[in-house]
Amino acid sequence: MTQQGPSPAETVVGSTMLQQRGGGHRKAKPALSEGKKAERKLGLLLCAPAAIVMLAVTGWPIIYSVWLSLQRYDLRFPAQQEFVGFDNYAAVLSNGYWWTAFGTTMGLTVVSVAIEFVLGMALALIMHRTIVARGLVRTVALIPYGIVTVVAAFSWYYAWTPKTGYLANLLAPDSALLTEKLPSLLLIVIAEVWKTTPFMALLLMAGLALVPDDLLKAASMDGANAWQRFTKVMVPVMKPAILVALLFRTLDAFRIFDNIFVLTKGAQDTSSVSMQTYNNLVKGLNLGIGSTMAVLIFLTVAIIAFVFIKLFGTAAPGSDEGGKR
Amino acid sequence: MGKGITRRGRPPARAVAVFCTGVLAAGTLAACGSSGGLKINVYQAPEDNFQSVVDNCNKQANGRYEIVYNKLPRGSDDQRLQMARRLAAGDQSLDVLGLDVTWVPEFAEAGWAEEWTGQHKETASAGVLPAPLKTAEWNGKLYGAPKNTNVQLLWYDDRVTPKPPATWDEMIAQSKQLKAQGKPYQIVFTGAQYEGLVVVYNTLVQSAGGHILSEDGKSVVLDEGAVKALEILKNVTASGITDPSLTTFQEDETRQAFQQGNAAFELNWPFVYPSFAKEKKADLPHFKWAKYPEVNPGDTAKTTIGGIDFAVSTYSQHKPEAFEAALCLRSPENQKFSALKDGVPPTLESIYGDDTPLDPSKPEGSDNPSMGSTYPMRATIVDALKTASLRPLTPAYQSMSTVMSKVLSPPAEIDPRKTADRLRKELNDALESKGVIP
């Protein structure tokens, strides 16, 4: 598949803006009739409340946390609040704990998304191909995703508790896995994978549905074996769906919090960036440093999304480019 | 001894609460809330029998107000978080706050705790042992009424060591000797990466005559005494005389390790005694206690204390009643009740010498305990309390503690000089709320 013109996401954003700005945007277009103008105006008015609410609930907190991140603001020292510019950013970015957490988070993200992708693809193929009890198979496969993450995390935690947990008794009767760094990271990955593979599979299955049967049959006629059909026909056709699935999961995985919070509480350097933000912002009551971390996470997530969309050409689901080839 | 000394308390017997709610519905009994709607909300850690204390005080209030016991979560981080979060938002529905002794400066400095003055101050501080009283002060003002205290002791088996070691050096030497003889030899304490490790370290620093912070709590000192403490911590954990999984030991794991018989010495709070009495009755006569070992021979150990202070929220809409309620909840009678029923050592010296059982009209027995029967170690506790030390007093204690437990973990990998330098730097940042906490 080759790279085409403006990326799909850009097109989507562009056209939305166009609609919002109405006729004023392109002078070259012929003037709209009175009726059309009135219609546009009404449309804008009808959109306005939703747009304003959106701005208030998403825009304002973002702006406010950026503003907080530029201040020395600790609830325990209310008298010492002052504007410090980028001092907080310097403090966080020069701190070893932050980079350790950043590395841990990145590692967890890459490893868990990679495993989820492989397993998710397998699961998607199974769900796609099932002939008998299709609904049942799909429902069963989705159960882990339907369980609240914290609840699932607690059941993992208890399962791995030495002496009382069934998994601990079965696999490692004499050790406390959650007290060692690598084993606990592994357990966190397992919990993540178990929980979100169905989501991945769901997105990939939508991609599989796009692969025309004729194409596979034709490939088969040409002598392609199953693996070749998968890599040469299915995957290329599915690419948009695959990239969307990977993007969604990567963004989600990077913000991992609940599993770590329950399983290790961030001990032995298993803290993620979100955990650390929580520790500084909520536990430490340090609004300045905490907001700085929140902004940094926001930026990282934005960069990840940018890389996926610009470099890999991920299309937003439902946009024109997606899967129409 | 069914009910004994616990750290904070166990799941509650809700009988009284249920009874009162039932009666409330029927609307008959005065003591259960015909107070004209004035409610004083107390936020306190879970304590089995605290509701009875609340009921007592409601009876005393005689309908002027009704105290409502709002149980905070079990974990102390969660307790602090709930109160801090709500107070930061100016929540007016909190009246009396049960603060851990390390939170008082934080809540006072943030303007969340009301100062105690005049008559209230006098009542709150009368007869209180000096160390617990000091935990309730910040900048020379009183911000809390000490409710209960706590102090760690050295526990040992007199069949293994007839005479307890007086100093750390002696203890380490004895432990090595016992190991060579094939007897129980381990030294166990709270070595996990959490507040418990900070408590041990603080005791060592103070006992060595050192300081972590300056007197006013504004700068990091970490002097020779603090380095000496690091040396001891390293020495005791890196010479094969403690449990291999010490780094996962919190209070209860420490208790279990000693009860399982591998350890010769245990440093822990007095809650270990009733547990031992219940679970190893046959060995109880040999389960002995002594003051915490000294660092410098001849200098009494300065053991770190714990406990709860009652503060009144600045956002409370009923401050006079809140002060009154707080005073009642920690009155001598109620402190004694809590000490006997919930195992939380009182802050008033006089209670330790009180020999009348819980119900003075009946003879003493297993269902009618006295201070003597519940606290056979009471003389040692008072002794330890009199020379006790406090954890550093600063509003930034929470961050400091997180940093300390992190830097000190695992204790076996401490490099005294280097670790001290790292501590100094990171504590400084934490103190100025500049640094990142792990």
UniProtKB/TrEMBL annotation, chain A:
InterPro entries: MetI-like, MetI-like_sf, Sugar_ABC_transporter. Residues 1-34 are annotated as: Disordered. Residues 102-308 form the ABC transmembrane type-1 domain. It is found in: Cell membrane; Membrane. Keywords: Membrane, Transmembrane, Transmembrane helix, Transport. SUPFAM superfamilies: MetI-like (SSF161098). The chain crosses the membrane at residues 42-67, 97-127, 139-159, 185-212, 287-309. Pfam families: BPD_transp_1 (PF00528). Belongs to the binding-protein-dependent transport system permease family. This is Sugar ABC transporter permease. The lineage of its organism: Bacteria, Bacillati, Actinomycetota, Actinomycetes, Pseudonocardiales.
Automatic annotation (TrEMBL), chain B:
It comes from the Bacteria. InterPro entries: SBP (IPR006059). Residues 1-30 form the signal peptide. Keywords: Signal, Transport. Gene3D superfamilies: Periplasmic binding protein-like II. Residues 341-375 are annotated as: Disordered. Belongs to the bacterial solute-binding protein 1 family. This is ABC transporter substrate-binding protein. It comes from Amycolatopsis minnesotensis.
